[in-house]
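Q: Convert this sequence to C-alpha cells.
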Amino acid sequence: MTGWPAGVGCRVLPETDSTMAEAARVASALAGPEWVLALNQTAARGRRGRAWSMPSGNFAASLTIRPSGPVEQVALRSFTASLALRDALIAVGCPEPALSLKWPNDVLLHGGKLAGILLESLGDRKGGVSHLIIGIGVNLAAVPDAGALETNAVAPVSLREIGVTVTPEEFLDALAPAFATHEASLATYGFGPTRTAWLARAARLGEVITARLPNEDITGTFRDVDDTGNLVLETPKGPRRIAAADIYF
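A:
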C-alpha cells in the first residue's frame, strides 16, 4: 500500500456535527487538500439533504480540495472517489469481484450499498469553484436502521458482514493515497481513463434501470456514461442523457 500522499493534511475528530460542515468551515484557511475524519457525527447528511445514519465504527470523512480544470469537470470527482473507494476496500481485504460501482456515487458489495459519496462546491467571487468538498461514508462495522431507508433503496451491507474488520483510521490510510492516484490521473489525462475504468466496474451496465428525477421517472437500458459524466439510458423514445438522478434497479 502506498504511503500518505505528500502535501495532504489530515484531522481526526472524536465527534463533529458533520465532516462536510466542518470542512466547509475551515476551507478558506487551508493551504492545501485536507481530510477530516470523524469517529462520530451528530448531524450527518447525504444527497438532497437526507439524513445519513452513522452507527459506531463506520467511516465518515470529507476531503477538501481546490479542483483543477474547468468548472464542468468538478463533478467528475464522484468517479475518481468511487474508484479510490474500490481500491481502498480491496486493500483492506474486500474481495475484488464482490464490488461494483453504482452511478453516480455509490459503491456496492454483493449488490448491497456499502459506501456513498457526496460532493459540495464552494464558490468564489468570479462565479467559479474555490473548493470542492468530497464527503464519503462507508459501512465498515454496521448498517443503518431499516427505518432510515427510502422505499426501494438498495439494501445496505457492511464490511464486517463478510468478515473484514478495519478501523476508520486504517481505512483512511488506504483511501487517501488511492484518491490522490486517481486525482492525478484525472488532472494529467482527463476523464477518458477514469471513465473507462469506472465503466469496467459499473453495476447493471446493459440492464434496465430507472432514473428518478424531481419531475419524472425515466426507465431504460443503461448503455454508457458520456464524456461529461452523464448517465446514458436507451429508452423507447431514444437515448436520454441524465446529469443527476436517483437510480433504482
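The two ends are 34 Å apart (CA to CA).
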